[in-house]
């Protein structure tokens, strides 16, 4: 008798399909989740597996990958069953290893026809040696993405928190908005490039040697913007902003370290997958976190994003943050909490009786909705999808705490449908906020190009270079940079150090302005539109009117041979992005001195 393994978590669908298959003469084995499906495939060796894709514990895609990666089960046909008849689902199922695909509600005659086709006897092929665990690449790309996302979430949270605390029309608020939008751009890039489904389909085309430079190139421009504006704000922000700006800057530097060492990071992630245990960042509560105070709500956070604790502290809550699950379990008996924020990777804590009467707010990434639904089913109150603005965090926390006060008056839980409706509305509001910020940023960009030309005239900011120019006039620097945010940030920092700054946004305009403005130094970005930095430099050095002007090449491509290529094209010096301003100022000074001595 032909044996069929039916992996289905919906009891009604499972019973209906089992009975119809048995009526057709098949012997049916049942599994109610993906993990049980993998186990029973190996132990019972069925002739065919019917695999629902949306399963608890282990979803159908991952269960199929594990079945196809095991030499003992990889020859067993798998038919994917799903209610999501959307574009790409079939390709995704086949990419995971499924032999066929069918949609719900099941057309039973069509399903039996597909089963019969797969069950026809075939000449067995000798098993091929397994050289790659197919579950590994997906897990590795996902863990790499999560490692890069963590400092980005921190940057988004801190910049949003500082925006909330700053005056809406101030220059501080405008610069924080640029940091916030750039951090959102970083998150979009990381989630788009490190899409695990896309990478799994294309993994044979990627190598570390090709992938690392491509990813580094995409991330360095917005990251350079964030680091530059952080350093700018640290020089001029109010004292009560400095501590949080330093945390923001540290998060950016941590991501920069990961980006600059992508080769080793990628190698590590392709060798071993991350364990299910999250790695928490150590965090010490500030002096304002006093558990002896009884007049404000006490909140426990079990998560890695430390900026969440800082946001809640600013809102007046008494916050404690656990760095490990074990520490959380040790804290719970000794303190009473009004609310717990729990990272979705640790929903097993929901079964602890100590949390039974405490509202739980889950923290998850956008691709962790199955775990969120599982957590809601286990008793969690609500959830937040990272990244989230401080206003949404404040609203969710306040709603959960208010629900506790009204718990005795509530007779029936209002259901998951209302929760999803509220979440969709909040997500729509968040999208509108982001669009509004992006529009405002465009307005800032347009006005910045007119403001940059203002020159600091004070004598005490003059760099002293006798003989280069009249001592009453600032030294002129031509900055050729096509990224408006980086151009604005760097020009403002140079103005602060006493230089006059002339801007050009492409190579052709840079050549033209060098002739008309006759600057003392040219800062030349290499990747420019119209003509690139290499060609622009060669033209300037070939023209007697501009050949003596020192040129410093700026590039995000810190690759072997780039310095030699820059010098060969005629550049007098070379520097990498993100810009370290003291180093750049030193190179400008050296170029000016060299120019005097010629």
From TrEMBL:
Top-level enzyme category: transferase
GO MF assignments: phosphorelay sensor kinase activity
Pfam families linked to this entry: HisKA (PF00512), Response_reg (PF00072)
Record InterPro entries: CheY-like_superfamily, HisK_dim/P_dom, HisK_dim/P_sf, Sig_transdc_resp-reg_receiver
Residue numbers of 4-aspartylphosphate PTMs: 52, 525
Known EC number: 2.7.13.3
Chemical reaction(s) catalysed: ATP + protein L-histidine = ADP + protein N-phospho-L-histidine
Domain Response regulatory intervals: 3-119, 290-401, 476-592
Coiled-coil parts of chain: 403-447
Entry annotated with the keyword Coiled coil: yes
Key words, A-Z: Coiled coil, Phosphoprotein, Two-component regulatory system
PANTHER family found in the cross-reference section: HYBRID SIGNAL TRANSDUCTION HISTIDINE KINASE J
Name listed for the protein in its UniProt record: histidine kinase
The organism of origin for this protein: Stenomitos frigidus ULC18
């Amino acid at each position: 008798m032909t044996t069929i393994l039916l992996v289905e978590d919906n009891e009604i669908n499972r019973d209906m399909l089992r009975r119809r298959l048995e009526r057709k003469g098949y012997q049916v084995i049942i599994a109610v989740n993906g993990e049980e499906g993998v186990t029973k495939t190996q132990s019972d060796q069925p002739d065919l597996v019917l695999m629902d894709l949306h399963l608890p514990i282990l979803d159908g895609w991952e269960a199929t990958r594990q079945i196809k990666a095991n030499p003992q089960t990889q020859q067993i046909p798998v038919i994917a069953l799903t209610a999501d008849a959307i574009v790409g689902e079939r390709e995704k199922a086949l990419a995971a290893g499924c032999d066929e695909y069918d949609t719900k509600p099941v057309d039973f005659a069509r399903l039996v026809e597909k089963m019969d086709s797969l069950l026809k006897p075939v000449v067995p092929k000798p098993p091929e040696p397994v050289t790659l665990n197919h579950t590994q690449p997906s897990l590795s790309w996902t863990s790499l993405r999560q490692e890069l996302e963590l400092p980005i979430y921190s940057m988004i949270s801190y910049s949003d928190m500082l925006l909330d605390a700053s005056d809406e029309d101030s220059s501080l608020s405008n610069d924080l908005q640029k940091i916030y939008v750039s951090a959102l751009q970083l998150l979009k890039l990381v989630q788009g490039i490190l899409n695990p489904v896309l990478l799994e389909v294309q993994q044979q085309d990627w190598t570390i040697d090709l992938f690392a430079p491509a990813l580094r190139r995409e991330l360095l421009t917005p990251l350079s913007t964030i680091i530059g504006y952080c350093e700018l704000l640290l020089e001029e922000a109010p004292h009560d902003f400095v501590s949080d700006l330093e945390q923001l800057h540290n998060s950016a530097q941590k991501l920069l370290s990961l980006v600059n060492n992508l080769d080793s990071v990628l190698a590590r992630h392709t060798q071993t997958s991350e364990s299910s245990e999250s790695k928490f960042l150590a965090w010490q509560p500030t002096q304002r976190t006093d558990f002896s105070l009884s007049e404000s709500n006490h909140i426990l956070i079990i998560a890695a994003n430390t900026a969440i604790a800082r946001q809640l502290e600013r809102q007046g809550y008494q916050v404690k943050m656990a760095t490990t699950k074990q520490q959380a379990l040790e804290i719970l008996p000794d303190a009473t909490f009004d609310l717990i924020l729990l990272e979705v990777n640790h929903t097993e804590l929901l079964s602890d009786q100590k949390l039974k009467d405490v509202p739980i707010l889950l923290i998850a990434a956008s691709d962790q909705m199955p775990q969120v639904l599982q957590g809601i089913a286990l008793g969690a109150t609500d959830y937040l999808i990272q990244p989230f603005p401080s206003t949404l965090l404040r609203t969710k926390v306040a709603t959960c705490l208010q629900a506790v006060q009204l718990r005795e008056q509530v007779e029936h839980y209002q259901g998951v449908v209302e929760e999803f409706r509220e979440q969709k509305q909040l997500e729509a509001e968040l999208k509108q906020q982001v669009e509004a910020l992006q529009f405002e940023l465009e307005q800032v960009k347009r006005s910045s190009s007119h403001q940059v030309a203002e020159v600091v005239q004070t004598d005490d900011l003059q760099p002293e270079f006798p003989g280069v120019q009249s001592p009453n006039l600032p030294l002129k620097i031509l900055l050729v940079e096509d990224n408006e945010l980086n151009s604005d940030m760097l020009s403002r920092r140079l103005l602060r150090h006493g230089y006059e700054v002339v801007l050009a946004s492409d190579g052709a305009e840079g050549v033209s302005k060098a002739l008309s403005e006759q600057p003392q130094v040219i800062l030349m970005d290499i990747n420019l539109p119209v003509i690139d930095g290499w060609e622009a430099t060669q033209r300037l050095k070939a023209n007697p009117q501009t050949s003596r002007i020192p040129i410093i090449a700026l590039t995000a491509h810190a690759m072997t041979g780039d310095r030699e290529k820059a010098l060969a094209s005629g550049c007098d010096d070379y520097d990498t992005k993100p810009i370290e301003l003291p180093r750049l100022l030193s190179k400008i000074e050296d170029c000016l001195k060299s120019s005097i001595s010629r």
